[in-house]
Amino acid sequence: MKTYGYYPGCSVRSTSKAYERTLLDVCKVLGLGLKEIEDWNCCGATAYFGVDKAMAMAVSGRNLALAEQQKFDELVTPCAGCYLTLRKANEYLKDHPNDHINKSLDRVDLHYGGTVTVRHPLELLSSEEALKAMAAAVKRPMKGWKVASYYGCQLVRPYSDMDDPYQPLIMDRIMEALGAQAVDYPYKTRCCGGSLTGTVEDVGFRLVYMLLSEINKHGANAVATSCPLCHFNLDAYQSKVISRFSGGFDQAGGRRLEPLPIIHFTQIIGYALGLELKTLGFKDLMVTPGRLVAAS
Amino acid sequence: MEISRTVKYESELDKDFGNRVMELSGCHKISECIQCGTCSSTCPVSLYMDYTPRKLMAMIKAGFKDEALRSQTIWLCSSCYSCTVMCPAQIKITDVMYSLKRMAIEGGIYPKKAPAPALAKAMADIIARNGRNSEMGVVMEMSLKTNPMNLLKMAPMGLALIKRGRMEIKDFYHRDKIKNRRQLHDLVKGLKKEA
Ligand code: SF4
Ligand code: SF4
């Protein structure tokens, strides 16, 4: 069994604990080893690049160097923000081996040789092999689940080698392998508002509203996410957004939106694979998929 | 009614601004912008911006430094990279936005009470100090600097999160830290010296 280096990031340690728990459980069932790298630091996310670029590269560089020192050649992170940030720093440090950021890392015993590849669990869990293993291990066929997969921005942009930057499919394939119906809709990678929900609420909430409205329109009864920040925006702000725009501000045609369960994709996999309900953390969600669970 | 000139004279433009932005952003293609507007049409927030991304690119090229750095646009950009992926001239518009944010913060001309730069700065400070981010810490610092009422407004959601085990009372005062903070601090110091 291959063991990947695991970089949790800050969000799964606070508001998205169920994401991490189910990720680790599901990987164990499917025979993928994840080992947390020791003493990792926060990647700085999008904020750091707007304050100090060299620092942004260096703090991510520390994580990459630690992964390398701890003998991992692949580093897996469940957060799309961490994924992009680490990857951006990785490309930069590899492309500029002699610049001052690499030298600063060297001076504090963090030499980085550029041997690490950054991955997201969605990639590992959607390989042909993993899909087959998953389909064979389904214990709770997901009858009646119509899942809209929401990928967010930073998983597929600007790097688009994992999947298409606007119409990705890898999460949909996982949902289908589990027996759910994958709902197609046009906003799979449209921005969830990022930190705007906290900084410029009026704009952030509108972005969340447009996403939810599009997902509603296409008949989904659940949403799967692959990033703790996207999840927080859709899950935690959903009720506020619905009540603020209940008449629909421009495109829902005045239809009141149905509150949907917003679920980490690994929780859904865990559910289908028959993990104990208590451990899945459905109860921690603002809207639980209770009705779907009872019906399927 | 006060009448003032609404058009800038060429002599008032900062002719070197475009070059500095290209240098800082690491994107040297800004000069190749063909003003097609693809970036603005794909941008999910362009309709709330004071200058659309297309317009901003033209302003950078022409040297409208003050207008660009004081714009709301740069603080509305959510880094979704849609413009960057779509631009036919391969301009890394998102990275250009980042570089403008940095220039505005360094020049001290960002909107002081605006939450977006306050959030970015609070987060950078906490990480440089502790090595770990604290969502609660960042929100508290940002709110205190901009609009303390924000904290009251967020209380109901905080309670809902606590009820679901997604936030703890200790998050208000406890700050997660990495073990080897010494190394991190030395790294920060070393970088500052280089700069
Ligand atoms: S998409 Fe690119 S070329 Fe077109 S206006 Fe925007 S920056 Fe210029
Ligand atoms: S990265 Fe910023 S400017 Fe570009 S499309 Fe997204 S929000 Fe708009």
What ranges of chain B have pLDDT less than 50 throughout 5 or more consecutive residues? Answer: none
Please state roughly what percent of the residues of chain B sit in beta strands, choosing from under 5%, 5-15%, 15-25%, 25-35%, 35-45% or over 45%. under 5%
Low-confidence stretches of chain A: none
CATH homologous group name of the largest domain in chain B: Alpha-helical ferredoxin
The number of distinct helices of chain A, counting runs of at least 4 residues, comes to 14
Helix content of chain A: 40-55%
Strands of chain B, count: 0
| Secondary structure category of chain A | alpha/beta
Largest sheet report of chain B: none
The separation of the N and C termini of chain A measures: 33 Å
Share of β-strand residues of chain A: 5-15%
Task: Provide structural commentary.
The complex is a heterodimer of chains A (about 300) and B (about 200). Chain A is α/β, with parallel strands linked by helices and about 300 residues long. Chain A folds into 2 domains: about 120 residues, Glutathione S-transferase Yfyf (Class Pi), Chain A, domain 2; about 160 residues, Rossmann fold, CATH 3.40.50.11810. Chain A is about 45% helix and about 10% strand. Chain A contains 14 helices and 8 strands. Chain A has a 4-stranded parallel beta sheet with strand order 2-1-3-4, sandwiched between helices. In chain A, α3 packs across α4, α3 crosses α5 and α10 crosses α11. The model of chain A has no long low-confidence stretch (mean pLDDT about 95). Chain B has about 200 residues and is an all-alpha fold. Chain B has 2 domains: about 100 residues, Alpha-helical ferredoxin (Fumarate Reductase Iron-sulfur Protein, Chain B, domain 2, Orthogonal Bundle); about 80 residues, no CATH class. Chain B is built from 11 helices and no strands. The radius of gyration of chain B is 20 Å and the shape is globular. In chain B, about 40% of the residues are buried. The model of chain B has no long low-confidence stretch (mean pLDDT about 90). Chains A and B meet through α2, α3, α5 and α9 of A and α6, α7, α8, α9 and α10 of B.
